[in-house]
Amino acid sequence: MSSRTVIRGGLVITASDEIHADVLIEDGRIAALAASGTSAAEAWSAERTIDATGKYVIPGGVDAHTHMELPFGGTFASDTFETGTRAAAWGGTTTIVDFAVQSVGHSLREGLDAWHAKAEGNCAIDYGFHMIVSDVNQDTLKEMDLLVEEGVTSFKQFMAYPGVFYSDDGQILRAMQRSAENGGLIMMHAENGIAIDVLVEQALARGETDPRYHGEVRKALLEAEATHRAIKLAQVAGAPLYVVHVSAMEAVAELARARDEGLNVFGETCPQYLFLSTDNLAEPDFEGSKYVCSTPLRPKEHQAKLWQGLRTNDLQVVSTDHCPFCFVGQKELGRGDFSKIPNGLPGVENRMDLLHQAVVDGHISRRRWIEIACATPARMFGMYPKKGTIAPGADADVVIYDPHAEQIISAETHHMNVDYSAYEGKRLTGRVETVLSRGELVITEREYTGHAGHGTYTPRSTCQYLN
To answer: Which of 94, 173, 282, 393 could form a disulfide with 212 if both were Cys (CB 3.0 to 4.6 A apart)?
Structure first.
């Protein structure tokens, strides 16, 4: 049985075009586009018609950096794959790429299998995996080749968190050399974790225990230094590099310099660095703990350089690094010692709306919004044009977006499984109205109509930006 849906009367926005067009969906894919009101569009018949008059019709968001159920700091991220993907759908995101974790002493395969088991049958939207490589050895390097062949084409390493995820420069170089051969993409958490640990120890010895000191010890210069070092190691290996959650203007400068030299170096930032700052970390009564993440929030003056980087394409992607921990019982683990506060913020539900607000505020154009939130992450991680655009043959991951609706972000109304919002009380213009995932209605006029298990695992090809 063929199923057909027509979306009529909306402004279709992709990374490259804005056109008033009707969209025909057939059997879970985009079948055709035709200018609204033309005989071609009028001739379409379908079981379901969605009126998008006065609305935007955009591709579903691709969030290439989430941590559902991540074990960290003696606890677990509070969103499961079920609650987290449902919240993502509410926010107009129809694909996530989460991080499977290799534990030290275990194989990549064991980590990947464990994450498949967490996600399978539980997701409301489609998902893929990156692989966190915590233990580089000859077996790991061979496994990287196998994972690339089966569609896990990106590997994350950490210059931070000694004793947990940390890799030294030699391990990083070996993994980069391997990815240069197998086509994989190394994703780097670029902070000098060895130096940061010294500063943490010294701060605590001085009695500086409040959340704001988390930001003060994780210095922007140590993000910039690590970013520079990662770029040079990648250059030595002849490998591409993707730097995650860039927060400091000095790190943006390192990326810009590398890109000006023609290197395959890419950068991602997150909404928290664009909209929040060290002012939040300094909130009294331990409220600042809600904003503890790494890389940390920076002083407000960094925001302008991040927006500039997004406009000039020195930063290409906005992902969330969604890693929620409840204030009660989880963030509170760090009362009296900021280094014990679980690192991470909730945000998977807010990204598309916050970036639309950036359009309203004049930071970026509508097409750039779709580019950094949908098309580029899909291309970067080998899912385009199946994901990230509205074009014949693409998966029918489509959002009907009301650009005029107003909303106030609040933990009382969000759908993430966490007891606070990082953006509590923020007023936004624009809101998701209806969401389709592979042609199925997941959000219908602001009602959840999806279900756990609709989302399927998406194997990925290699990065589509390499010279």
So the answer is: 282
